[in-house]
Amino acid sequence: MSNADLTHIESVLTDVALKAGAIIKEKTGTAVFEDKKNAVDLVTETDKAVEDMIREKLSTAFPDFKFMGEESFSGGDNAALSDAPTFIVDPIDGTTNFIHGFPYACTSLGLSIDKEPVVGVIYNPFLDHLYTGVKDKGSYLITNAATDSPIKAALPLKKPAQKLTLQSSIIGIEWGSDRVGNNFDTKCATFRNLSGGHDGAGFCHGFRSLGSAAMNFSAVAAGYLDAYWEGGCWAWDVCAGWVILKEAGGFVAGGNKGVWNPPVDSRKYLAVRSAPEAEQKAFVEEFWGQIDGSLE
Ligand code: LIP
Hints:
By secondary structure, the chain is of the alpha+beta class. The chain has helices at residues 3-27, 45-61, 70-74, 95-100, 182-195, 213-222, 235-247, 277-288, and strands at residues 33-35, 42-44, 66-69, 86-93, 106-113, 116-124, 129-134, 138-143, 151-154, 170-172, 206-208, 227-231, 251-254, 268-272. It is 34% helix and 24% strand.
């Protein structure tokens, strides 16, 4: 598919994301939630309504493309990701934030071809921030996105002053929705290692938890976070952010030691901000050295 085609797809995804954002904002404060697999894995009627709207618009515009959405998948439509052009969609990433009114919920719309993320659009309607990325065409943050005077800036937003090292980093982390078992234990032990379990000496400057994988990827792409480590989320949480980060000079390694090229549906990732490649690789190795266990 040509770059022109991908740019056209990006503009359609942008329109759809802005429409989704308008619905999400209108429903804020009215969210009635249900549990999915457990009491911290939540869904609302708005997640489902927004996904239905997105699916309808995208299948009309691109009838030959496949669709993988969080709520359709939970509803039993769970075919594995194939090489075919596939929209990978989270109608509301950060559903818990949406329910609580914490303004870091977004719509995440990605396109993968040959299982590679090639277009990504992420829209946070509460901040009116739109992140976009197209393979080989760069990535951007557009503020005031839903107004008549949007402001577009190339990512990353800042050239970090510091060398990328584990010791000088702030790292995005999430508990996720698995609060027992292997991944929970691996995260707890690793958080301890990274935060100062060694004779009181901190190994990183701190953690941040935005409550949305797409928002965490966007923050790494912007350069606000140095890295984001996750185990347990899904392709729809990361597909759009993946393109945006890579086009911003970032790097996505596996969430477990030794995995340099994780597939987008591998469910465990270490996303690293823009820096010289040797620094990124040294950071990844150093981070992996602190992982206590192995994510599933
Ligand atoms: C959430 C993610 C979050 C992750 C959770 C969950 P949701 O998505 O973005 O970062 O830790 O496990 O998947 O449920 O809000 O769409």
